[in-house]
Amino acid sequence: MLFRNARIFTGNDETLLEGYDVLVADGRVAKIAKGIDVDAGWRVIDAEGRVMSPGFIDAHAHVMFQMSFPEAFGSDEFYWAYKATAAAETYLMNGFTTIRDVGGNTFSLKKNIDAGVVAGPRIYPSGPMISQTSGHSDHRQDCHKCAAILNEPSVPMKYHMVAVADGHDGVLVAVREAFRRGASQIKICTTGGTGSYADPLDVTQFLPGEVQAAVAAAKDWGTYVCTHAYHDEGIRRAVENGVKSVEHANLATESTLKMMKEQDIWLSPQVIVYTKHPLGYTEDQKAKHDEAYAGIDRMMATARKIGFQKIAFGTDIITDPELLQRANDEFRLRTKWFTPFEVMRQATALSGELLAMSGPRNPYKGKLGVIEEGALADILLIDGNPLDDIEVVTRPADTLHLIMKNGVVHKTALAR
């Protein structure tokens, strides 16, 4: 397939590349050059001046958690699977050709997407999000007894969406089990969270030795650990013990962000998820959610001020299929602190670099988030220039005129 007359956003360059053809073959960008000669049998696509972009990457997704809390706790695993299948197609039609799933039993969904059975993005699975007892993964109600001692898990634990582990040995088992299933990286929790019942935001979770156990096990598999963490102490405990990516960081202070920057730690923040209470939240959960939302502005402004570069793009949308339809509003929300180019780079090349940290556990062998020779052919054609007007990508149904993943066209609004 040969593309002509596109203005190319490479993922890294602020200036669009014009006057070049792009040849796609065998799922990759085979050649970028001027005036490529057409071979018989090639499909030629005239982009007519549209902007070509790498497929978007959501580096903080939860594709399995697209139902309200009451639905989640009252449904069987088949209901979860059908909801996730619908959500996967939503991600793809929003232009997200890749997601890093940071908590959920996505392994079977990933296999079926990769096999072409259902439509959806590439998935970098973490497997179950892992926390300590009383931590962010512990969704048991008061009617539940101790999960570790009496084997009485919550519904998300039962379906392996989350995991509760305590002590060095317990953490090793949980991490190794995730790798047994096919995890590309590991997600742990080192502070409280908004969606869990037992832990205020201010608590710090996992002792240093427990974090070290997760990191050591991941290192043996050639990959890395990311952590759910809101505040300084939880972030520092994670980073000091080998974690490479911090999710959220809403309440981080300047000194902690500087420490992360100096140590080449990834910052993986989200905005849109905090603009609305997830469905089914209790009043206590809503209060924690609001507290987390209140910290975003200062944290993002500080990251911009200190020149933090390793910033990934993510949405963290849970419980709400309607909000997932509007996931691309994340682009607009980030322009409060970053230029449209910076936001687009976060959603493409930078997040692609983060995914590549999975090393030999990377399920997709090739570069993502860029338009360059040899890269995987995840390509969008956009009606409008998001580097001038980021709002263009917030209307994907209207403005994404072509969505290609791995060289396969999943949507086209172009004249044939």
From TrEMBL:
GO molecular function, one term: hydrolase activity, acting on carbon-nitrogen (but not peptide) bonds
Sequence ranges assigned to domain Amidohydrolase-related in this UniProt record: 52-404
One Pfam assignment: Amidohydro_1
Protein name as it appears in the record: Imidazolonepropionase
